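Allow me, if you will, to draw on your knowledge of protein folds for a short while. Thank you for your consideration; the sequence and its tokens are set out here:
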Amino acid sequence: MAIRGKDVVFKGRALPWLLLAPQLLVLAVFFFWPAGRGIVEAFFLSDPFLDRSIYVGLDNFRALFASPEYWDSVWLTLRFSAATTLLSMSVALALAVAADRVLRRSLLLRSLVIWPYAVAPAIAGMLWLFLFHPAFGVLALALRDLGVGWNPLLDGGDAMLLIVAAAAWKQVSYNFVFFLAGLQAIPASLIEAAAIDGAGPARRLRDLVLPLLGPTSFFLLVMNVIYAFFETFGIVDAITGGGPGGATRLLVYKVYKDGFQAQDLGSSAAQSIVLMVIVVALTILQFRFVEKRVSYA
């Protein structure tokens, strides 16, 4: 291996592959192999106890699309994703705008605000459950004292509000850091020029700041939708377990319930494929229609 300026030139072909081998092995064992097995399982009816499989073609997908319960989970997940994304991005943007001047010169505070993102989803779910548990939750008891009926263990609407709030809280710090970085990248001279021209804070935010944050907002939109679809399993499992009455049975949780608890491996694998297709389709739609409104100038 030779170094020429900033470029690294390998004299042979073996060394680069040897350096990549550990990462490729991890990808093969923990991603490509499970993904391949999942695709194969989607076309079989498996007996988990006798270790036998029967090829059924597309029957697992047909049964899936004919199930009203599955379509309920689809619409439920879409609503949950939209609510979580809107709430987490809105709160993060408001916090970033409010904290822009305070945190501009504080590296320590900028590092601290991302700490909630490091909390595991299951831990985040347990924290919110302890706060809002109808029997002993501090905030739940405060709501009861105010005369607000609250019981996420029995009321599906309350349960959905709770997992949306927990999932959004988990993601706010991630969005906050990116929005804050985007705000600090805007030249102060532009803000000052707009202020001199008579634009108030609200108009500067609407006509100047938000358009300049377009690329950051678009990136966070894509990442938040992916997060809501794939990374909220731990929160749902810790808080509601998909209940009450399936009111919070998101697609990612239904894959787990059918595959690991009901032992219907074929249906679970088919659901995994459909879930991936939905997320890819939503991402393509965002790039197709939303990115057109984003200016990178």
About this structure: The mean pLDDT is 85.
